[in-house]
DNA sequence: GAACCTATCT
DNA sequence: CAGATAGGTT
């Protein structure tokens, strides 16, 4: 007998296979993470689209554990947080369907510019301009369709529960709840209704900065807004990091200073998140003062990664500087 | 009707 | 529990 014969129909998603999967995602870019395409890119003989889809589902929901992880995950550690879980599940359902997105501005370099809108809540302060806010795990973004088209005055809501991903994640670690209250959101004000530069926000520790203005010269496109985001996911040898540094896209400058973002330990269900400062404005260079770095604990073992990211804002350099106004939504 | 997606089953 | 499948949606 040859080994050509398949053992079972049940493919096991090994680290390696998953790695391939992740690679495919990377390759495809945020806009096209669909089972079919992933499958094609992966180009693994026996693999079917449905299998990929299934795996994708798991990953999106953060349900998937690598075989290796499973082993080490033999510890219970349940703290009666199941209720949380269910709660989020319900809302999850509500917003579960993917929005219809339009792909726009393909030339933006910033991959993680996705937007997904699940519901629109109006947000008092920012309603005037085109405001855009979002929250999502970069990691997750990888799995979803990105490149949304952010419609003008548009504000997605900040309720963490509106975001299925977040919900799920929240359930992952107990401490999350608090994070949610921090309103991880940010706003962007586009002078000209640009759709491009959406810097995605990150989940748990997003410090928002909204710059109101006087420091800018109105150049062709001025984006008065500071947003932060960053994340890194690394698993199975795949690291996708978004270090945004003076990225220039479509004529406008994206001055993002952020040092390394987050890290994700292959086992975790989490993505750390780091929030750097991205300043998008007419200025040519990133303002050093602007830099904000939220200390990144080595999140190697993170039962509750978020906890650690909770307070760092207190130590942000920027906090005392007046160069820019910062607004933190900490409660 | 294919591809997606979520939910549910095995 | 991981992965397959059902069944609804786009």
UniProtKB/TrEMBL annotation:
<dbReference type="GO" id="GO:0000976">
    <property type="term" value="F:transcription cis-regulatory region binding"/>
</dbReference>
<keyword id="KW-0804">Transcription</keyword>
<protein>
    <recommendedName>
        <fullName>HTH myb-type domain-containing protein</fullName>
    </recommendedName>
</protein>
<keyword id="KW-0805">Transcription regulation</keyword>
<dbReference type="GO" id="GO:0003700">
    <property type="term" value="F:DNA-binding transcription factor activity"/>
</dbReference>
<keyword id="KW-0539">Nucleus</keyword>
<feature type="domain" description="HTH myb-type">
    <location>
        <begin position="1"/>
        <end position="64"/>
    </location>
</feature>
<dbReference type="GO" id="GO:0005634">
    <property type="term" value="C:nucleus"/>
</dbReference>
<dbReference type="InterPro" id="IPR001005">
    <property type="entry name" value="SANT/Myb"/>
</dbReference>
<dbReference type="InterPro" id="IPR017930">
    <property type="entry name" value="Myb_dom"/>
</dbReference>
<dbReference type="InterPro" id="IPR044841">
    <property type="entry name" value="LUX/BOA-like"/>
</dbReference>
<feature type="region of interest" description="Disordered">
    <location>
        <begin position="108"/>
        <end position="130"/>
    </location>
</feature>
<dbReference type="Pfam" id="PF00249">
    <property type="entry name" value="Myb_DNA-binding"/>
</dbReference>
<dbReference type="InterPro" id="IPR006447">
    <property type="entry name" value="Myb_dom_plants"/>
</dbReference>
<dbReference type="GO" id="GO:0010597">
    <property type="term" value="P:green leaf volatile biosynthetic process"/>
</dbReference>
<dbReference type="InterPro" id="IPR009057">
    <property type="entry name" value="Homeodomain-like_sf"/>
</dbReference>
């Amino acid at each position: 007998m040859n080994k050509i014969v398949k053992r079972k129909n049940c493919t096991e998603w090994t680290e390696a296979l998953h790695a391939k999967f992740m690679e495919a995602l990377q390759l495809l870019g945020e806009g096209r993470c669909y089972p079919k395409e992933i499958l094609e890119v992966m180009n693994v003989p026996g693999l079917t689209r449905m299998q990929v889809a299934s795996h994708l589902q798991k990953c999106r929901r953060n349900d998937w554990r690598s075989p290796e992880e499973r082993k080490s995950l033999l510890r219970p550690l349940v703290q009666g947080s199941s209720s949380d879980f269910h709660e989020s599940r319900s809302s999850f359902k509500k917003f579960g369907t993917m929005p219809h997105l339009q792909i726009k501005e393909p030339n933006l370099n910033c991959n993680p510019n996705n937007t997904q809108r699940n519901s629109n809540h109006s947000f008092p302060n920012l309603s005037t301009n085109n405001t855009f806010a979002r929250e999502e795990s970069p990691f997750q973004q990888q799995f979803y369709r990105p490149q949304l088209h952010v419609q003008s005055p548009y504000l997605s809501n900040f309720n963490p529960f509106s975001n299925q991903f977040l919900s799920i994640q929240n359930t992952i670690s107990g401490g999350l709840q608090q994070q949610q209250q921090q309103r991880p959101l940010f706003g962007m004000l586009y002078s000209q209704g640009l759709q491009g530069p959406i810097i995605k926000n990150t989940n748990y520790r997003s410090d928002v900065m909204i710059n109101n203005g006087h420091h800018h010269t109105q150049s062709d496109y001025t984006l008065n807004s500071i947003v932060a985001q960053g994340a890194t996911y690394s698993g199975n040898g795949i690291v996708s990091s978004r270090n945004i540094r003076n990225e220039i896209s479509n004529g406008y400058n994206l001055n993002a200073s952020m040092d390394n973002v987050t890290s994700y330990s292959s086992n975790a269900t989490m993505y750390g998140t780091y929030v750097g400062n991205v300043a998008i404005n007419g200025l040519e260079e990133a303002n050093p003062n602007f830099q904000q770095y939220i200390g990144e604990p080595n999140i190697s073992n993170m039962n509750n990664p978020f906890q650690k990211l909770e307070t760092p804002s207190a130590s942000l350099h920027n906090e005392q500087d007046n160069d820019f106004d910062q607004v933190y939504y900490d409660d």
